[in-house]
Amino acid sequence: MIKVLGICGSPRKGNSQYLLEKALEAAQKAAPGEVETELYSIRGKKFAPCISCFKCGDQQGECILKDDFQELREKWVEAGVVIYSVPVYHMGIPAQLKAFLDRLGNSLFGRYAELFDGEAKLPRSLKVIASIAQGAHLFSGQEHTITDLINHALIMGCVPVTGDMWEAYIGAGAWTYNEVGRNVLAENEENGSLDTRVALRGAESIGRRAAELALILKAGGLANANRFSGEPVYQPFLRRIQG
Question: Are 7 and 45 in contact (CB under 8 A)?
């Protein structure tokens, strides 16, 4: 079973979650019975920023700050696919999600330290990472925000995935016509907006391709498990796909 975790990086229930729901539906349809989806929203959750104390390196990756980070970290670790859907804040990722990502990297250095004899290394967990961003304007930082999430995927030893061209070159993007309502995209879809239809097609294609790529990676990993069983960098990946 492929676990697909959808993370809505918006502090409210609205357009980002609407796009994410479309992506998760497409992921599940890509391989019925083989894909399990979950939507996690940061709405109402608390994520303190990393204070760079490096205690997680001495505590098997456990952060000294106790909030909603621990819950989401475990879901992230268990997932084979992570789909982020975020609103653009100041040309980038909302602060709550950025705080989670900052702490995630440091936490996993500590979590997997025993694999590398105490060296500061991260394994190649080979999760598939997909990115969706929506802003108020047509050019308000969607591609910049998606690029930040792609960089996050690479840093974490994951595999970024795109949707299908022409709708989704590096990820799926949308805009809300300078309107701030929570349901702008849903209303525009009903009104036949071309831009919204393109955004939804992008979200659906990226969800489908993410699930498909995860299935390919799992099959390849299982077929080559003996070959890579002695490589520390692949241990978390092999543990995950072997159940």
Answer: no
